[in-house]
Design brief:
Length: about 130
């Protein structure tokens, strides 16, 4: 069972890189490129939207949200193209990093902090 989980994780990492490649390819349909860019940016971001130290929810994105996003985007890409992207991704040794994903996560956290601050200040004034 442990070997199956390791294999699944390796395939998931390969598919994230394949989506990164799909998002950059003009042969991918535009709607799949947009979706692939969003999923790859988030999956390749150096930080998570929900940090892993948050009990249960911290691993939710790693175990459910990212794989579900990958699965949905793969269904949008024609199978022959996806097979090509997977083959190219398997040849890449270094996992790319996503500054767009990092910017998105930081923006969401800053917006959440601003909203929380506004809510607290509103409560203090009343």
């Amino acid at each position: 069972m442990l070997e199956a989980a390791k294999r699944w994780a390796r395939l998931l990492k390969r598919d994230v890189v394949a989506l990164y490649l799909a998002a950059r390819s003009r042969s991918t349909p535009w709607y799949a490129r947009v979706a692939a860019a969003c999923v790859a940016a988030y999956a390749l971001s150096p930080i998570d939207l929900i940090p892993d130290f948050v009990p249960i929810l911290g691993y939710l994105d790693d175990l459910l949200i990212v794989p579900l996003g990958i699965w949905l985007v793969i269904r949008m890409i024609p199978p022959e193209l996806m097979a090509d992207f997977r083959a190219k991704a398997a040849e890449i040794n270094a996992k790319p990093r996503s500054l767009a994903g990092l910017a998105f996560v930081v923006t969401v956290w800053l917006a959440a902090l601003a909203l929380a601050g506004w809510w607290v200040m509103r409560g203090i004034r009343q």
